[in-house]
Specification:
- By secondary structure, the chain is α+β, with helices and mostly antiparallel strands.
- It contains 5 helices and 12 strands.
- Strands 7-8-9-10-11-1-2-3-4-5-6-12 form a 12-stranded mixed β-sheet, covered by helices on one side.
- A hairpin with a 5-residue loop joins strand 9 and strand 10.
- The longest helix has 16 residues.
Length: 286
């Protein structure tokens, strides 16, 4: 088992906002069923930055940034092209524990092999328990910088990064092109949420944010330069903020019997590309 394979396993478990370019654009069927409900018209908005949408984004950012600790569940669903044309949907589930400014744990349970990520303020550790492989590297003293290093070393990326960074709004403000308010929903996250949409960089995002607690419940994203317009959805639940977290929560388990390997990016010159985990198939059996 090479170090590239460990990175590949981890990337699969954490993958969401990774554009799938194979498979080409999907053809639209011009036939429409007469019984299909009429689609609601898109909300009217003026191109630019709607102050109400910006206020909601800033309020959510402030709530997250003020939390000294947080735990939540992140379920990521993303589409991949199938041979039949319509995309297949894959999902991962991660249990996240964070303590500002320098502690983070991400346990990704599936689909696919379990993976674990630990940052204790001094080192980052990536663990593939089933394969009994782990990688360790020195880390900088903040969550933001540690996440950047994890990406640089092994292309490890979490789709919920914007939730745990020190200032979520600051990270997107310079790239915001359009933002507008849609309305409220009472069916997402078992609470009332404000729905907003915005374009940051080349990504279109729709977000459902708690009207009272200002916590994000669902984030829907599409890359505008993806010809297939594949969808990526991040569902956030089981929020707990500012509860005590044991210090040992950010320490990896006993690694006796596991083999240590170096971090390596899957896009390195000697890498052969992404290899799906053995119990998950990325091609349509048809």
């Amino acid at each position: 088992m090479t170090c590239r394979k460990l990175a590949s396993y981890l990337i699969f478990a954490m993958l969401c906002l990774c554009v799938a370019t194979s498979g080409g654009a999907q053809q639209k069927n011009p036939a429409r069923s007469a019984s299909r409900p009429q689609q609601a018209s898109a909300p009217d908005f003026e191109p630019g930055l709607d102050p109400r949408a910006i206020d909601i984004l800033k309020a959510a950012s402030a709530r997250l940034a003020a939390a000294k600790t947080m735990t939540f569940t992140a379920i990521v669903s993303y589409e991949n092209p199938s041979r039949l044309g319509p995309p297949l949907i894959y999902s991962t589930k991660s249990e996240v524990t964070m303590q500002r400014p320098d502690k983070l744990r991400v346990i990704t349970l599936g689909d696919g092999p379990r993976s674990e990520f630990y940052y204790d303020g001094k080192t980052i550790t990536a663990l593939a328990p089933a394969e009994k492989l782990f990688s360790v590297a020195d880390a900088p003293p903040t969550i933001d910088a540690a996440l950047e290093k994890a990406y640089d070393l092994g292309e490890i990326y979490f789709p919920f990064t914007d939730v745990v960074v020190a200032d979520p709004y600051k990270d997107i403000a310079s790239r915001l092109k359009i933002a507008f308010y849609i309305g409220q929903s009472s069916v997402v996250g078992d609470t009332t949420t404000d729905m907003i949409a915005y374009v940051v960089g080349d990504v279109f995002v729709q977000a459902w944010i708690g009207a009272e607690d200002k916590l994000p419940r669902r984030i829907y994203a599409v890359y505008l330069n993806d010809p297939a317009r594949l969808r990526h959805v991040l569902a956030l639940s089981n929020w707990t903020l500012d509860a005590p977290v044991p210090a040992q929560a950010f320490q990896p388990p006993n690694l006796a019997g596991a083999a240590r390997i170096a971090f390596e990016r899957p896009d390195a010159s000697n890498a052969r590309g992404f290899i799906p985990p053995p119990n998950v198939t990325h091609s349509d059996p048809h």
